[in-house]
Every structure is written in C-alpha cells, then in structure tokens.
Specification:
Strand order of the largest sheet: 3-2-1-4-5-6
Order of helices and strands: EHEHEHEHHEHEEHEHEHHHHHH
Helix content: 55-70%
CATH class of the largest domain: Alpha Beta
Strand content: 5-15%
Number of strands: 9
Radius of gyration: 19 Å
Oligomer: single chain
CATH topology of the largest domain: Rossmann fold
Number of domains: 2
Structural class: alpha/beta
Largest sheet: 6 strands, parallel
Number of helices: 14
Length: 268
C-alpha cells in the first residue's frame, strides 16, 4: 500500500485529498494549519499529522499545494520541514504554482538527502477535483512521474509529462496567461452587456452560439471569479511575466491583465 502525505487542505487541495482518502490502496496522512479540514479528512479515514516532519516520515509520496514560492520553501526546506523527515527514495510533488527556478532549488536541496522532486501543477480548481477531471502538467524524471501517476489519477486522467524538472510549472504559467486574458475579456464583455440591461443568461447563449465561445465565457453566470481567485491570478501573471523576461519575451497582453484583472473582476 502506497503511503501518501498531503500538505495544504485549501479550496483546491481539500477535494484532492478527499479523493485520496477514498482510494482503497492508499494510506493517507494530511497536514494543514487549520483544524477543520484536517478533521474532515480524518473522518474519511486519513491519518492526522502533528507536524510537517511527521507527514514526511510517513510517506512514500508527499504532495504539497500551498499558496506561493515562500510557502513551498518553508514547508519543504524550513526547520522541521519535509526535507528533515522524508526518507531517501521518497518523492516530493509540488502542485503549487510557483517559479520553475524555485522548483529546481527545492529539488537540489532534496537530492542531497536522496529525495526526488517533481513539479505537477494542476488546472480545474475545486470543481475539477470534485469531478475527478483535473489536468496535471508534470515535469521531472519519468520514473518518478510514473510512480505518481496512480495517485494523480484519483483526481484526473489528464496527466501530461512535459519534460524535465520545471517543465510542468512553465506549462502552468503559459496556461494561466491564456486563462487570465480569457477571464478578463469575458468579464469586460459581460459587464458591458449587464450595464446595458441585457440578461446575462441569454447573453451566455449568444456567446455559446457565436465566435466568442470559450469555457470561461460559456459558463460566466455560474463562474463569477472571486476576489481571492483574482488575487491568485495576479500572482500567477507576475510569475509568467518573470519567466517571459528570462526568455527575452514581451507579453503585452499578460502585462495589461496583471495590472487590470483585480480592478475588472473585483467590484464593490
């Protein structure tokens, strides 16, 4: 039985962990600073970890889905963190959307202890996890990726191994540029329609039938991004722009979206 550790039971992480808890062939231990989601997972059969070190010591595979680079580094490399508890031969999976350079930094530190690292950011959000339709964008050694596939398949069958370490994160940043520009366009178009007095549900039907059709726009009425989502998108766009600068690219649309996305989507 594969022993899995899961760190980060937020909006996206909790439903992913719930899927793991329901898998008959996995022994799951979870960790989060908040007691409520931990209790929910324990009620489903997961083990409760008292520390990051403990969840790492338990696990063959340690999945991490926290907010940003600083949190990933603190969780994995900090005092009494994952690297201090994980066994040689175990694998750390980074699901958080962070800099490819941070993935490589974490991997180098883990390699000195015999611990493998792969980056596997995800798309689909909480609903994608709940419907087990998430998309995994994965970078790293093929053997490590193959060992993790059955774990990833508990939340989605769309698992793309895109290349070396950091490739998954680069793909996620490119994906976020497309998503955010789409969200910004849908938000402004729907704002115009609503201000003019048009019915948004009917407007959705127009979009589905016309050239503006997209997954975002087609479902805008129930989609309606939150302030927290807009804040995370702004962070992801910042990372994408940093990546583009390193490659000598100017992403003018992404730059505009990074400045405007919260202003357009978050309205008092």
């Amino acid at each position: 039985m594969t022993k899995v550790g899961f760190i980060g039971l937020g909006e996206q992480g909790k439903p992913m962990a719930i899927n793991l808890a329901k898998a008959a062939d996995l022994d799951l231990m979870v960790y989060d600073l908040r007691a409520e989601p931990v209790e929910e997972l324990v009620a489903l059969g997961a083990r409760r970890a008292g520390s990051l070190r403990e969840v790492a010591a338990h696990s063959d595979v340690i999945e991490v889905i926290v907010v940003d680079d600083a949190q990933v580094e603190a969780v994995v490399l900090g005092d009494d963190g994952v690297v201090d508890g994980a066994r040689p031969g175990s694998i750390v999976v980074i699901h958080s959307t962070i800099r490819p350079a941070t993935v490589r930094k974490v991997a180098a530190a883990c390699a000195s202890r015999g611990i493998g690292v792969i980056d596997a950011p995800v798309s689909g959000g909480a609903r994608g996890a709940q419907t087990r339709s998430m998309c995994y964008m994965v970078g790293g050694d093929k053997e490590l990726v193959d060992r993790c596939r059955p774990i990833f398949e508990t939340s989605g069958k769309n698992i793309f191994h895109l290349g070396a370490l950091g490739a998954g994160m680069t793909a996620k940043l490119a994906h976020q540029v497309i998503i955010c520009l789409n969200v910004l366009a849908a938000g402004e178009g729907m704002m115009l329609a609503q201000k003019a007095g048009l019915d948004l549900a009917m407007m959705q039907e127009v979009i589905r039938a016309g050239g503006a059709s997209s997954r975002v726009a087609d479902n805008w009425v129930k989609y309606q991004p939150t302030a927290s989502a807009a804040k995370l998108w702004r962070k992801d766009l910042m990372l994408a722009l940093e990546c583009a600068e390193e490659l000598g690219l100017d992403l003018h649309g992404a730059s505009a979206a990074q400045q405007l996305i919260e202003k357009v989507l978050v309205r008092e």
